[in-house]
Design brief:
This protein is mainly β. The protein has a single domain (about 45-255), classed as Clam (outer membrane lipoprotein receptor (LolB), chain A), CATH 2.50.20.10. Helices cover about 10% and strands about 35% of the residues. Strands 1, 2, 3, 4, 5, 6, 7, 8, 9, 10, 11, 12 and 13 form a 13-stranded mixed β-sheet that branches. The chain is globular, with a radius of gyration of 19 Å.
Length: about 270
């Protein structure tokens, strides 16, 4: 199933990106507590739950979400390692995106303001930028195909996520209802020829994706990737320049480089 990667180690062409500028001001009003509905008398159809999620995401003109993912890596010795990454994703439709990658070395950042996109590493004071496509969907494709930059949860950020997610399915299962960090969710499982994937979607009036688990059957050892989506803010307030990158004094511009082949086999990053 050919899709944009949902979650991958970002190949930033030798860039190590970090924090730059302040985060959006959070709405002071807390989100309502999740609605705990009784179990359905008849199991929902998995595709219907996916469509409900996609339809709800389309109604959101802006949001932020925290993504915490663990990617399983398989060494030549068959030892399995697990790489953690935390990201703060901000979207303002139709053509604004910013991703802040957090780590102990300072973090990384991706900016897209509808005209250009930029990758910046404050610690090294280097950045690269290029002309972007006019829409978020086209820019996500451009980043992946031309610059080999994999954006997390890309398939949930496009205009029609359900149409991408159901491609090449060979099986689908409604597993049941389960709590994900205290939130009641529908647990769905799907298969394609190369990928087994699961998604947990909030049950209730806000069918937000809360967790994904991917198993890459095309790679020896079938590595997995797990991602939790939390701290959804559906009414963030963004500064006018929040999605635009302005090089700070002393920052050096560099060219994009082709990503080097991975030394270990990571889990496939999209269903």
């Amino acid at each position: 199933m050919k899709l944009l990667p949902l979650f991958s180690a970002i190949l930033f062409a030798a860039l190590a990106l970090s924090s730059y500028a302040s985060p959006p001001a959070a709405d002071s009003s807390p989100l309502p507590a999740p609605v705990v509905n009784p179990p359905p008398a008849v199991k929902p159809q998995p595709r219907d739950v996916l469509k409900s999620m996609a339809a709800y995401l389309r109604t959101l003109d802006r949001f932020t979400v925290r993504v915490e993912k663990i990617t399983e890596l398989i060494l030549p010795t068959d030892q399995r390692l697990h790489a953690d990454q935390t990201m703060e994703v901000a979207i303002h439709k139709p053509n604004r995106m910013r991703i802040d990658y957090q780590n102990l070395s300072g973090g990384r950042q991706l900016f897209y303001d509808g005209q250009t996109f930029a990758l910046y590493t404050p610690e090294a004071k280097v950045y690269a930028s290029a002309t972007a496509a006019p829409t978020l969907d086209e820019t996500l494709d451009l980043l992946e195909t031309q610059y080999r930059i994999s954006v997390p949860i890309a398939d949930l950020l496009v205009a029609n996520p359900d149409s991408r997610l159901v491609q090449n399915l060979t099986s689908e299962t409604y597993v049941g209802r389960i709590l994900v960090h205290g939130v009641p969710c529908h647990h769905l499982a799907f298969q394609t020829p190369d990928l087994d994937w699961e998604i947990w979607i909030e049950d209730g009036p806000r069918p937000l994706p809360r967790r994904l688990l991917l198993t890459d059957k095309s790679v020896e050892g079938e590595p997995q990737m797990t991602a939790n989506l939390s701290e959804w803010n559906l009414t963030p307030q963004f500064a006018a320049d929040y999605f635009s990158f302005k090089p700070p004094q002393g920052a050096q511009k560099i060219k994009f480089l082709n990503a080097a082949p991975a030394a270990v086999a990571p889990a496939k990053t999209a269903p």
